[in-house]
Write a structure and sequence with these properties.
13 strands, binds pyridoxal-5'-phosphate, Aspartate Aminotransferase, domain 2, Aspartate Aminotransferase, domain 1, 7-stranded mixed sheet, 4-stranded antiparallel sheet
């Protein structure tokens, strides 16, 4: 079957926490137009189309900065995805024997770089637990701070339970301490209004391909003034600037952007951001909240189903994880796809410590339904009916 033929079959896509789909039409069009009509590299050559490519990249950088409440667009670094942004933040900052505080709610893209540095560079990592709803306590984070703590890394929202973490309160608890604050905003950027100033984040990592509605292969790292002074590049190479030197330029964003940029991805990401601004991130937040409320209440009413995460939906992002008594999570997800073409993700969602906390390691993890701006209540009702039919059929 070709991709075109597959579109003919009704599909309910609820894997937006992995990557968003569909994208706004303008996202597809932006990549297509760049590839057909421009196709030149950004930041390297002086002919007209190359200058135009550079101008387009800078414009997207400005629009993302504005969306995140950052007044200096050079602080937005383009990366390959959220993981790449987190690796830059973690590897670019930490040196031998540094101390880090993080949490059990983190994704492997925080946990694994930290484990790697623990094993190879003697970095000391303190992992703070969370409560049964997936929430981390600001006091518990503050209690683990040491005078030499270099970094505190916390996810803005769990990609397993959807729990929003009290980021502003954690930042408040760090006031006066020299540790830098890294926020993993993979599940929040584009889904709810946020500003780096209000979150008091020194570093904020996010994919471009989830809530920002760009294509896979895009991501960003915000580097705040305190972090800028300490963050090293982890990849060096051509930037099209200061080419007489064989040393990486110290300027932003070139210090962190070696090699040709993903211009077709970045211009499409810009179209995604434009869509968010036009529709309004707050309006999208309200839409996703209405979907997730219906979903969590509907699924929770099924006798065999356990819903994880906070009962108060205002404390979660647009995702719901469940287990169903007597049903392996992978099999339930497979039955939803084969029987109903409902596409969800099952398993550990790259966040093993959260599953240890929830006791869902033994059930093969959870089945996660994650909504986006283009889902509707009708789809949610079909999903609830499908889960009901599968679990009652045994
Ligand atoms: C909380 C969290 N952090 C980081 C990532 C990694 O993002 P990416 O898939 O863009 O590498 C994800 C992706 O699912 C995530 O949910």
């Amino acid at each position: 079957m070709t991709w075109d033929e597959r579109q003919e079959v009704r599909r309910i896509y609820l894997d937006n926490a992995a990557t968003s789909w569909p994208k706004p039409e303008t996202v597809y069009a932006a990549s297509d137009a760049y590839l057909r009509q421009c196709g030149a590299p950004a930041g390297r050559s002086a002919y007209r189309d190359a200058v135009e490519a550079e101008r387009s990249v800078d414009e997207v950088r400005r629009r993302i900065a504005s969306l995140l409440g950052c007044d200096d667009a050079r602080r937005i670094i383009f990366t390959l995805n959220g993981t790449d942004a987190l690796n830059l933040a973690i590897h670019g900052l930490l040196a031998q024997h540094d101390h880090v505080v993080t949490t059990d709610a983190e994704h492997n893209s925080v946990l694994r770089p930290l484990r790697f540095l623990e094993e190879t560079a003697g970095v000391q990592v303190t992992r703070v637990g969370c409560d049964a709803s997936g929430r981390v306590s600001p006091d518990a984070v503050a209690a683990e701070l040491r005078p030499d703590t270099k970094l505190v890394a916390v996810t803005h929202a769990s990609n397993v339970t959807g729990t929003l973490q009290p980021i502003a309160a954690i930042a408040q608890a760090l006031q006066g301490h020299p540790a830098l604050f890294l926020v993993d905003a993979a599940q929040t950027v584009g889904h709810l209004p946020l500003s780096v100033r209000q979150l008091q984040a020194d570093l904020l990592a996010a994919p471009g391909h989830k809530g920002l509605l760009g294509p896979l292969g895009t991501g960003i790292l915000y580097v705040g003034p305190r972090a800028d002074a300490q963050l090293h590049s982890v990849r060096q190479g051509g930037t099209g600037t200061e080419s007489q030197q064989d040393r990486q330029p110290d300027t932003l964003p070139q210090r962190f952007e070696a090699g040709n940029l993903n211009v077709p991805g970045i211009v499409a990401l810009g179209a995604g951001v434009d869509y968010l601004v036009q529709r309004g991130v707050e309006a999208i937040r309200q839409h996703e909240l209405s979907l997730v409320e219906r979903l969590s209440v509907g699924l929770g009413a099924i006798e065999q189903v356990t819903v994880y995460g906070p009962a108060d939906v205002s404390q979660r992002v647009g995702l719901v994880s469940i287990t169903a008594n007597g049903h392996d999570s992978q099999q339930l997800a497979a039955a939803l796809d084969s029987g109903y073409r409902i596409q969800v993700r099952a398993g550990l969602h790259c966040a093993p410590r959260m599953h240890q906390r929830l006791g869902t390691m033994q059930t093969g993890g959870t089945v996660r339904f994650s909504v986006g701006p283009f889902n509707d209540l009708n789809q949610i009702d079909m999903v609830i009916t499908a889960v009901q039919q599968i679990v009652t059929a045994g």
